UniProtKB/TrEMBL annotation, chains A, B:
PANTHER family: GALACTOSYLGALACTOSYLXYLOSYLPROTEIN 3-BETA-GLUCURONOSYLTRANSFERASE, GALACTOSYLGALACTOSYLXYLOSYLPROTEIN 3-BETA-GLUCURONOSYLTRANSFERASE BETA-1,3-GLUCURONYLTRANSFERASE
Cellular-component GO terms for this entry: Golgi membrane
Organism: Caenorhabditis nigoni
A GO term, aspect molecular function: metal ion binding
GO biological process: carbohydrate metabolic process; chondroitin sulfate proteoglycan biosynthetic process
Catalysed reactions listed for this entry: 3-O-(beta-D-galactosyl-(1->3)-beta-D-galactosyl-(1->4)-beta-D-xylosyl)-L-seryl-[protein] + UDP-alpha-D-glucuronate = 3-O-(beta-D-GlcA-(1->3)-beta-D-Gal-(1->3)-beta-D-Gal-(1->4)-beta-D-Xyl)-L-seryl-[protein] + UDP + H(+)
Principal place of residence: Golgi
Binding site for Mn(2+): 166
Class of this enzyme: transferase
Residues annotated as site: Interaction with galactose moiety of substrate glycoprotein: 198
Known cofactor(s): Mn(2+)
Protein name according to UniProt: Galactosylgalactosylxylosylprotein 3-beta-glucuronosyltransferase
Membrane-related topology note: Single-pass type II membrane protein
Length: 307, 307
């Protein structure tokens, strides 16, 4: 086969000639090179299975997911499902912040099981902050700013996303949307704010308004699950989730993004093009029902978090 | 390197000799074999990432998951989370049965995205059956019995599990428990039947009773999420989910298992040993809250299922 190749193809001046290639004593070297190349190529391919074959050139960008959490009946199953989702995503750093005095062994086990890089820390809500993860997300922003190199590792770029543990996420939210955010990415969220879907209103690729029912006049009328910001935006500001957001009629998203120095012209909308016939929703604002528990709280030695 | 190997090592009578190996005209053939072997070995390794490196010798057993489903607000996000979970499991066949006249394109998309083998079919609940997936699970049992070879593929053995789309599952439920069931496997389920956990009561490896609050006298006092049966048990009976289960005080699990000819001595309990200090729960009976939707049901062209 190879010996029938036109010899000219291999005669690159100053490199190697077909004559050398035909030297049988060098064949073990060629075999070594080929085996090494095949191992290298397969190792660096992102193929997992089926359409989870999603990561390509952008996968060197670190996806940084910030998840506030707290002890409740459904926290462990919620975190298990979120872990199963995030574990599909390459190059992801998960920051989980417990609203409590100490971290939970059950959550630690789940995080350990993902094989992802993560930091799990406890910060009980400080006085004046609402009990909605505001303080925990602020602690995460400070952690990102003071541990940037550790989080990025060999990645040169990062994107920060606030993903709560009870929402539902399509893998493509992380691989197709979040990892491609250069400044501020915004997309639709299902079952949110009293609507079947909240979405940016896009004309000629630009967002001038938001298709939401609740408080549509906010500069950024978007749910926490509906945006991500490039790490550079986080590092170039000291914006935090304060004790209140008066500009957001109670919702902190617009205050954070405005305090980061962003305006509507910075928005990169994702998923509005309606390719394949219908626009698809990759983030769903779901809540898990508290279970019906009656009588004694016997756990029979099983690891289960009781409220 | 190779040329320094003792020649005797390669002198297998009737096969090939070191003399032939030294023939440079055969080297392209050897290169081909080596590249093929490396690709084959890597392709058949079960490594995905981190601790999802879970599958070993038992992975040739087909895990057959049966999921009845129906159109509702939270069905798509529920199915997305379940798909993200099952997509981690090798050698899994997913049978999804719509309680309706036709299948849903949104669900079809989710199934397609997993890369798993699956069958998605529509069977509206027949007269007399309760609206709780009984008829759909019966249709799945008939499908398994009449399409066994197609489902098994190259696998020699299978296990059938009834997994609803709103529950939460640890990956190890499928890899460590279900795939190892020889007859009837039973394990703990979290947040079930009014208890933090329902579990088999195990003494000396045997189950004589069940730690449940609701109807503990049933022969099999177990939730749908808490057991799996070997495919042989399914094929050796014509048991189905009938229009009622009088022996189960309304719960169909015990009738199905009794009709399959099983009794308590057949139970293989999983996860009760309390290794690592605490017994762990790998299946959670969760429900997703219906979202708060008010006013008009505008979807802005996004793919969203409306009740």
């Amino acid at each position: 086969m190879w010996s029938n190749f036109p010899k000219e193809r291999f005669s690159l001046p100053g490199m190697f000639s077909a004559r050398k290639l035909n030297n049988p004593r060098l064949f073990p070297l060629y075999i070594g090179f080929i085996v090494f190349f095949v191992i290298f190529a397969l190792h660096h391919s992102t193929y997992i299975k089926g359409s989870f074959m999603v990561e390509s050139s952008e996968s060197s960008v670190m996806v940084i997911v910030v998840t506030p959490t707290y002890k409740r009946y459904t926290r462990v199953p919620d975190m298990i499902r979120m872990a199963n989702t995030l574990a599909h995503v390459k190059n992801l750093y998960w920051i989980v912040i417990e609203d409590g005095n100490k971290t939970s062994p059950a959550v630690e086990d789940i995080l350990e099981g993902t094989g992802l890089q993560y930091t799990y820390m406890a910060h009980p809500t400080a006085k004046g902050f609402p009990k909605k993860g505001w303080y925990q997300r602020t602690m995460a922003l400070r952690f990102i700013r003071s541990n940037t190199d550790q989080i990025l590792g060999t990645s040169k770029d990062g994107v920060v996303y606030f993903g709560d543990d009870d929402n539902s996420y399509d893998i493509r939210l992380f691989t197709d949307y979040i990892r491609n955010v250069k400044t501020l990415g915004i997309w639709a969220v299902g079952y949110c704010g009293g609507s079947p879907v909240e979405a940016p209103n896009v004309t000629d690729g630009k967002v001038a308004s938001f298709n939401v029912q609740w408080s549509p006049k906010r500069v950024f009328a978007v749910d926490m699950a509906g945006f991500a910001v490039n790490l550079k935006v986080v590092l170039n500001s000291d914006a935090e989730f304060g004790t209140s957001c008066k500009r957001g009629t109670g919702a902190p998203e617009t205050c954070l993004l405005e305090d980061m120095g962003l305006d509507r012209t910075d928005i990169e909308p994702f998923g509005w093009e309606g390719k394949e016939g219908q626009r698809k929703i990759y983030a769903w604002h779901t809540k898990t029902k508290p279970p019906y528990i009656k009588g004694k709280l016997e756990t029979f030695g099983y690891q289960v978090e009781i409220e």
